[in-house]
Structure formats: structure tokens, C-alpha cells
Amino acid sequence: MVTNTDQADELAAPLDLLLTSSALGIGRRMLPNNSWSRLALQLARRPGVVGERVSALGQELVQIARGRSDRVPAKADKRFADPAWQGNPLLKRSMQAYLAASDTAETLLADSHLDWKDDQWMHFVVDNLLEGLSPSNNPLLNPLGWKALIDTGGLSAVRGLRRFVSDMSSAPRVPAMVEPDAFTVGKNIATTSGSVVLRTEVFELIQYTPRTEQVRTLPLLMVPPVINKYYIMDIAPGRSMIEYFLTQGQQVFAISWRNPTAAQRDWGFDSYGQAIIDALDAVEKITGSERTHLQASCSGGILAAMTAAHLTEIGQDHRLAGLTLMVTVLDQSHAGFAAAAIDEEIAQMAIAMSARKGYLDGRALAEVFAWLRPTDLVWRYWVNDYLQGRAPAPFDVLFWNADTTRMAAALHRDMVMLGVHNSLTVPNSVRMLGTPVDLSRITVDSYVVAGLADHISPWQACYRSARLLGSKDLRFVLSTSGHIAALVNPPGNPKAAYRIGPADEADPGAWVNSIPQQSDSWWPDFALWLADRSGPRKDAPATLGAPDLPPLYPAPGTYVLAH
Q1: pLDDT in tens, 154-164
Q2: What distance in Å separates the CA atoms of residue 199 and residue 58, rounded to the nearest whole number?
Q3: CB-based contacts of 367: which residues, under 8 Å, 6+ apart?
């Protein structure tokens, strides 16, 4: 039995929120509005409940002051792991008072019985306020800061101040999660051997060197998100999705998007849809195959699904051997804070902001991502970088996360409006390359992956999205991981688990409670699924590219290096 699966939806924020908040600034979400007023009104109507909660808090604070409280942080709460929080009377009391007040605030919010939109908004506000007020963030209280100060003879304070000034001087204005020189793309990250075999204004197409003497006949084309660089799929040896599929005998190609500037402000849905088709053309020419597996993730999955619908509409869906969508939200209905926060006026303001620049700055998007998980992605590094004056530990996924890209203004507009109107749930309400998009007409076999702990693409929304497709053979996989760990999920991880089955239940909760959990990664299952639909084996090509599509540069190419 799975618990708290509904809560995951409430804590998630899909693409339209991310894109509007990135343009307007996350601080706008914290300002008082009508949701605040309705919260106050609802609590005013329940004076007895409020009085009871406040009285209970007062009584507990008295017990805390007397040293008689047995309140302790949750086992998973690492903020108060240092023994001083238990051994020092002042620190222990400040921690207990904070935990008691936080519980009261969260309980009062639940007692207010707001409608779901106001509840989503106020949860975001309250959660961020409570996280920020934690005594573990206070330089005068956190014992880790004092210990570092003593150990370094005061140098930790100097280093922390320097880091603070450096981080706050430019976007994303959050503590650095990784040093900018921790990794080098192409040397110790994104290292799988291959060559760029096509370079257009929009993308580079990378063909990877086979790892087996024979390969499957039908190739795999991977479409990355448009708001991050492609190499999350080739993050490091032993954890690279691309490397793994090569070892399974697949022919693997990947798109690497160009990092647009204001000069590319007019690139919208059609520009990227045509790019996917151009990549398909090249893959078919190089491999001699008439069919290709299309795999895409996050925002790239939205574009891939719309392109698949376009190919279906023009009678070319036979070119697709399969469609794989990973952590992709096509149905934005009731998808967490986004649906509560976004309306037409806010959307138009965000669109106008990016239109003036010609693009949405990826660093602003990184800031929004961070504040969606403030404990893990903001305050943890606040303590490490500033209070302790330490450099953050090198971590390749966080390096990738910080290696941001821009989004062309036209694509930003198209994506925001798609989310605001939830257009993909209504057949023919949005167009790709001049044809109406109807996802229910996509009948190619499909494989859809979601993450149970995903705070960007709620798994319930991914499940509903899978059911929009018309595929007769559709497999839905729910990894127990989050947004990125659901993808970077190599076999052999004892903590990994997943559920897998057809998306045949209308209710996501009913589905997850009816499907048994399996241990380890979903990658082997997907490799078998691909193999079953990739035709017979043939000798691996001796060289990459084709006579009129020769290798241009070694992987990872040149577009991925642009900042």
C-alpha cells in the first residue's frame, strides 16, 4: 500500500508555473493577495479552533521553557542532526519552539479548509516562510557555523561572506550548489563516444558509437528538455542512460538543442517540431531504417508528443516504432501549485517580460526550481556555503542543473499558454506545424515513465497524460525516485524500485495501490521493451554518419558548450 501519494501532487509544480515565475520572479508568489485574505476570514470563522491551537502552543512553549518538552525533530530532518541541538539547553529550546510553532502553523492551515487553489497558494507561502525561519539557518544559533569559525580561526566567516556576495550579485541569487569548475563537459561528464552528424540552426544530432558487434535494426532518437542541456542522459560512465542502451545493442542518437539568444526569439512550437522531424530524417538516412523509436523527457516530451500527433495527422505515423515519454506532463489539470497560481493575466505578464528580452533566462528558472524545494536546494547550501564557509561538494547532477539554458520567447509563450489552457487535453485546440493536435489519435506503442517523488512533473499528472494517448499497447512505469533520479536510474541501486503496468485505471491512486512494487531500476525492462520492437540484429556500422552526413565534431558537440 502506498501512502501520501496525493500529497505529492500538492507539492509539485509543472511547467507553466515554472515558466511564469521565472519571468516574473518567485518573490511575487510570497506577496499578500486574496488567498491570504480568505485564509484570515476562514480562521476568523473558527475562533474556537484557533483558540484551541494557540492555547496548546502556549502550553507547550511553557513546557519547553521549563525543559520538560519531549518534542524532537522527525528522523528525516537533517537540519538538527548536530548533537549540540540536543545537548545545549538554549539550542534545544529554540529548536523545540520552532518545531512546535511550525506544527501549529501547518495545523491552522489545514483547519482553514480553503478551496484547493487557495490551499495550494498558502501552502507554498507557509512552507517557504517556515523553512526560512528555522533556527538552523541563523548564523548566531547554528552550531555548525560556530564550530567552523573556531576550527578555521575566523576564516570560515570571511569565506562565507565572499560566497554570499558572489552568489547574490547575479541570478539565480541562491546559494551555489556546485562550483562552476567542478566538472568539464566532454572530459568527466557527457563522455560517451560519438559524433555530431548533423548541425542545424536549432540543434546538433549526435550519433553514438555502438558498443556491441551487432545492433538492433530500428534506432532510438532521444529528445531532451528545452530548458536544460541534453547530457543528463549521459551524465557519467556507469550512470549514463545513453551508455546503457548502447550496451544493450541499441543504435542511439540524441538531439542537443542550441542555446538560443534574442536573435532566435521567434522559435516556437513549429521550430522545435520541425527540428525533431529533421532529426528523424537524418536518423533514417544514416541507419537505412524506415522507423525510429522516439524517446523524450519533460518539456521535450511535450514537443515529441505534439510532433507524433502531427505525423499521425499527415499519415506518417508509420515512421515511429515507439513513443517514450519520461516525466512529461501533458495534462496540467489540478497539477499542484501551478494550476492555483496561473491565470491569463499573470501568463500575459510573463510572456511580455520574455518578449522584451527575446528569451527566458535559464538562471531565473534555476531560482524557481530551488525555491520549490527550499530545505534541500536553498537552506542546506546556505548553511554549508555561508555559515560554514565551505565549497559545496562536487555532484554531477547539480552541475548539470546549474548549467542553464535560455528559452526562446516564442517557445516560452507557446508553453505558458499551453499550460494555462491545458490545451493538450482538448483535441484540436492547439496546432503543430499547421495541423491540429489530437493525442488520442497516437496509436503507436508507448512507454511512459514518472517519479513518485517528482516535485516538477507530478506522477499523477504524468499518469493522466499517458491516458490521453490512443496507444493500444501502453506501459506506465512509476519509479520511487524524484524528477531527475527517475531518469538517472542505473541498475544495481538497492534503494531503487518501481511499479509497472498498463494505465487502465481512471484513478491514479487506484492504479498505484493495485500494482506490486519491484526492486531495482526500470532501465532493464525498457531495454527489453525496446528490443522487442526494434527488429532483428545486424552488424554494427563500421563508421558513423553517412556519405552526405559525415561526422562533424566529436560528442558532446559544440552547442552544449554555449553559455
Answers
A1: 999 999 999 99
A2: 66
A3: 22, 26, 171, 172, 173, 174
Say whether the peptide bond before residue 556 is cis (omega within 30 degrees of 0). Answer: yes
Q: What is the pLDDT of residues 34-45, one digit of tens each?
A: 889 999 999 999
Q: What pLDDT, on the 0 to 100 scale, is given for residue 22?
A: 59
* Max intra-chain CA distance, the chain: 82
Q: Which amino acid is at 121?
A: W
| CB 232, CB 397: distance < 8 Å | yes
Tell me the C-alpha distance between 466 and 448, whole Å.
7
CB atoms near residue 201 (< 10 Å): 11
Given a cut of 60, whether residue 452 has pLDDT beyond it is yes
Percent of the chain with pLDDT over 90: 79
pTM greater than 0.85 (yes/no): yes
**Separation of alpha carbons 304 and 226, rounded Å:** 11
Backbone angles phi, psi at 200, to 5 degrees: -120, 180
pLDDT at 277: 98
Spatial distance between the Cα atoms of 492 and 453, rounded to a whole number of angstroms: 20
* Residue count (the chain): 563
- CB of 248 closer than 8 Å to CB of 255: no
All residues at 6 or more sequence positions from 214 whose CB lies less than 8 Å from its CB, including other chains: 249, 537, 538, 539, 540
Q: pLDDT band at residue 21, thresholds of 50, 70 and 90?
A: low
Percent of the chain at pLDDT above 70? 93
Q: Which residues contact 160 (CB under 8 A, 6 or more apart)?
A: 385, 386, 387, 388, 389
**What's the pLDDT score for residue 120?**
77
Q: How is residue 482 written as a grid cell? A: 524524484
pLDDT at position 6, please?
Answer: 36
Other residues' Cβ atoms within 10 Å of the Cβ of residue 375:
15
Does residue 205 have a pLDDT over 50?
A: yes
Nearest by Cα to 331 from 441, 450, 421: 421
Mean pLDDT of 317-328: 97
The type of residue at 307 is T
Lookup result for grid cell 506518417: 316
Question: Regarding beta strands 320-326 and 292-297, do their DSSP bridges make them parallel or antiparallel, or are they unpaired?
Answer: parallel
Mean of all residue pLDDT scores within the chain: 91
- Cell numbers standing for residue 390: 565551505
pLDDT recorded at residue 349: 82
The residue from 298, 341, 424, 450 that is catalytic is 298
Contact of 111 with 49, CB cutoff 8 Å: yes
- Cα atoms in the 13 Å half-sphere on the side-chain side of 259: 17
Q: Shortest CA distance to 524 belongs to which of 220, 248, 249, 327?
A: 248
What lies within 8 Å, CB to CB, of 337 at 6+ separation is 10, 12, 13, 17, 120, 121, 123, 124
User: Is 462 marked active-site?
Assistant: no
Vertex 119, ends 118 and 121: CA angle to 5°? 65
Q: Using the structure block, give the residue that is written with the C-alpha cell 513513443.
A: 323
Under a CB-based contact definition with an 8 Å cutoff, are residues 254 and 208 in contact? yes
